[in-house]
Amino acid sequence: MFQHLLVPTDGSSLSRSTAIEAVRFAKAAGAKITGFHAMPELRHMTQHPGLPTDTRANFERQARAEANAALDFVKEAAQAQGVVCDTVMVASDQPHEAILRAARDRDCDLIVMASHGRRGIEAMLIGSETQKVLTHSKIPVLVWRSNRG
């Protein structure tokens, strides 16, 4: 069965409900989890020569705070159920690639992630990190969809 789950989160309510389900699954399987968050790199936005230094620092501080909040939720959900959990935060403008790299580097055997269920033109314009992970992953991916998200 599965021993190590990677649980990517963007901090949304759907990601939180997915994390809760991933923790339940991990507990039943006797697996550990790694919560994962890919922050935007912000380098293109924050390296603009006219942008004040404090604005750059504020962007970075806010992105880090949001990432920490998302990962803390996963860690607390795991601790509440007695599931071993660590967390990883990276900066990447290609979240799907960062997810796949984290799963490989940490020897995860399952990725459990949310899908917002975008369709049609919205899906084409915005893209889907979940779809990209499904397309390129060499390990199983469990996609969680919820009516509550």
Automatic annotation (TrEMBL):
<dbReference type="InterPro" id="IPR014729">
    <property type="entry name" value="Rossmann-like_a/b/a_fold"/>
</dbReference>
<comment type="similarity">
    <text>Belongs to the universal stress protein A family.</text>
</comment>
<dbReference type="InterPro" id="IPR006015">
    <property type="entry name" value="Universal_stress_UspA"/>
</dbReference>
<feature type="domain" description="UspA">
    <location>
        <begin position="1"/>
        <end position="144"/>
    </location>
</feature>
<dbReference type="Pfam" id="PF00582">
    <property type="entry name" value="Usp"/>
</dbReference>
<dbReference type="InterPro" id="IPR006016">
    <property type="entry name" value="UspA"/>
</dbReference>
<protein>
    <submittedName>
        <fullName>Universal stress protein</fullName>
    </submittedName>
</protein>
